[in-house]
């Protein structure tokens, strides 16, 4: 394949990676906000850490994308809708043949989160590029490993042409705190691989090994293991086998201490003019604005990210919590609201 | 017990505190015009999204800001139709609020107090301050103080250069 | 209602104690009573409003001014020198950390022996070396950025975050220090940095709106208390806001049984029993609570048989020198909101008897205000000319003064605008104070000359109570002070005071790191004594 085509492919894959990382955030956020405190403190802390690290992954993928001169797109056509089935080049990921939902904190939902973050088993084979990609059903790990392989190939041919992006677009350490890992600015193959390694080891597609298995250090433990602790309601111990359920101290979980939110809602679920419709509209407005700001932050104006974090995140948390505490009028099950994470057209027109 | 704090919102503020597109455009143009008037060289385009958030937050904080923005847009558009853009913006930027508490402010005073004056503050904080020689400014997100990375403000080493 | 540990106040002392007690025993029964309300922190809209208008959400919880002609005000200043209360403290959840500057100094070893060295006030009941490990923990807790190589005070381990480099605005004063041969250093500041340890509290982004940090990078006790509650299982920790404590109740002379507070929302008096009480309500309110609690066993107030409570109040006179800088070719202007330069050259054993002082280069050393100039209609050419032309040049500082028996705070029998007992402040500065200031002015005049500026006028001096201390000072017995080395009120087995009130002296530096160290030390003492139920 010509270099030009390889580069095109690389950019397309990185865009998919951006969308993959964005897609995990709303389900984690909804599960987290649906929890009524003070129950489930540890579980909430674990989910919170994973959610923030997914934002880190987005930043890291964005850095790789920018380093190779690409342009991240986060718009109406690149954001997930739920229930979500993640596809890549028209085919579902082999390890994502299930729906990801906007749903309350529940055992079923944690099981899905475990599947999202499930490690590779066995480790991914080294792959040739073009022909492999046509094979249906890549795993997420294979997908990321393919990106790394493609970077290696292009780098071997012409590193300067590959890492031609504007360095001022890189996000730095300043923009991340509050969970494990760190933002690595990307300028060459080594930093690109280091950035993607964090994504892989912390989350999707890590091989089962002890690198991501740090009992007692939740922020250094792979996402799968954190969810596994919630699922089995136990902590891992140092002597546990990472391939087996945890056997340590109990981790108390109470699936009844949650808001009975509506699963995978759309704006049509809220009667026009009702308080929930108004709240949802506000939520979607803030959500869309925040996505636009994240896109801007990843395409040359990093400082906009502060506004996305400090204003956007707080606004959507605030609106989402109000919705979850508000019953849906006339709902037979007594469900409460849940934000729909839909693109707000008005905000989109602005640009 | 709260996991997150809810945001501060004026009870009379709408859930979605936005302005109409024409008002948004008139306010954006006023904000942009700060640049040429004070010969600022920073490109305002990257501030566009944050400026919008800023206006929403002002309305959220106090819903009367929606009226201020609508009123300012109406008055400014009238003036522009009559005198053109440059004269209009100059008349706003070149003066200052002179009213006394005992009498209601003039329309120009109102715009300077709550609209253009605040826009000036935000323009500086977004990055306009750099034109005056500094590297950091109160309200600007300068970045963290990380060992081995560039300091986000001018340090004493600068004097050596 | 019955609790294990009852804490009056919710500032840094209360919050640090609570955290440490719960680390030892997550089941510990603890109730905090806070007279004030919750101020929402880290809100973008509130932050923006502060940035644009300078108005802060917590100023309604300041004291009002003293009564003046035509203005009713509140409290009373009855001495020869007015100590303003307004702006010196905040009655909110989180206490005065809501507005503090975060300057995070340690006292120097000689400060612990003031009486021995100078005959003034009292010595502390332990030395610097006893507090040193707690100073380290306090700096970690408050997330201080400082210069670990600074030898001004001995330290056994590094600051958690490295120092903020000197700003360009520090150039004139650093030049002066070099010329004059004075020692100087980086001002240690409680602004969280970035390290390999993840934190739910965000790092400082050098945004310069520190009185209301949008990130929560400057320590505010309520943020930490909220975090403590949200992310831990502490089933027996509770906080009651709007609880105005009226008086302590005794169980015999030597045991406090509990207290009575008024619930601001209902207006009702509520009785709480406790195994022990820690009064952590600041220098003034802590003393006033002891004074107005007058059970039969303590007719002059709890712990006040020797008339020591509320006396010896001190604060830091904060002085502002303003001189002239003839030209400003480097375009010096405020880029920060906190100082990075300090000299403790005069914070030395040699100066101790006369009153130590420290000097800082304020963040507005050259106080240019761009927004104000533009909003005032000035042209670009006029602004440019004003920046490089002659400008004001500021140097700030603080001086140590000594406790005097006659200087005191007491309760006034009426309520302030927040429903709390008003305060009478009786303070008169020492007769030698003005001479000492004149001496300082001579030193500062030399510094101005070495900076290439000129100083021709006296400083403005604020006696505001920000750093007020010593009203319940620690002493070997009740004839000289109010609490013992463990901060326990003399004569009462289970009553403690934890505030700047217990400092026998405050040196010339900000007291918060020392108070935090004392709080952690008290918590360790209580933990060692075993959990009381």
User: What structural class do you assign from the helix and strand content of chain A?
Assistant: mainly alpha
- What is the N-to-C order of secondary-structure elements of chain C (H for helix, E for strand)? EHEHEHHEEHEHEEEEHEEEHHEEEHEEH
Q: What is the multimeric organization of the chains shown?
A: heterotrimer
Sequence of secondary-structure elements of chain A: HHEEHHHHHHHHH
Distance between the termini of chain C: 13 Å
Treating each run of at least 4 consecutive H or I residues as one helix, how many helices of chain A? 11
List how many beta strands of chain A DSSP finds.
2
Describe the sheet with the most strands of chain C: 7 strands, mixed
Terminal Cα span of chain A? 37 Å
Indicate the proportion of strand residues of chain A: under 5%
Strand portion of chain C? 15-25%
Q: Which regions of chain A have little confidence, pLDDT < 50, spanning 5+ residues?
A: 122-136
Task: Figure out the total of helices of chain C.
Answer: 11
Please state the overall shape of chain A, judged from the principal axes of the Cα atoms: globular
Helical residue percent band of chain A: 40-55%
Q: What overall form of chain C do the CA principal axes indicate? A: globular
- The strands making up the biggest β-sheet of chain A line up spatially as 1-2
Concise description?
By secondary structure, chain A is mainly alpha-helical.
Describe the structure.
The complex is a heterotrimer of chains A (351), B (161) and C (533). With 351 residues, chain A is mainly alpha-helical. Chain A has eleven helices and two strands. Chain A has a two-stranded antiparallel ribbon with strand order 1-2. In chain A, a hairpin with a 2-residue loop joins strand 1 and strand 2 (91-92). By secondary structure, chain B is mostly helical. In chain B, helix 3 crosses helix 4 (85-93). With 533 residues, chain C is of the alpha/beta class. Chain C has helices at residues 12-24, 44-53, 114-118, 128-142, 171-180, 221-230, 282-292, 370-375, 380-388, 433-451, 512-528; strands at 2-8, 30-34, 76-77, 145-146, 161-162, 185-186, 237-241, 243-250, 256-263, 269-279, 318-325, 341-343, 357-361, 391-399, 408-415, 421-426, 460-462, 495-497. In chain C, strands 1, 2, 7, 8, 9, 10 and 18 form a seven-stranded mixed beta sheet that branches. In chain C, strands 6-12-13-14-11-17 form a six-stranded antiparallel beta sheet. In chain C, strands 3-16-15 form a three-stranded mixed beta sheet, with helices on one face. The model of chain C has no long low-confidence stretch (mean pLDDT 96). Chains A and B meet through helix 9 and helix 10 of A and helix 2 of B.
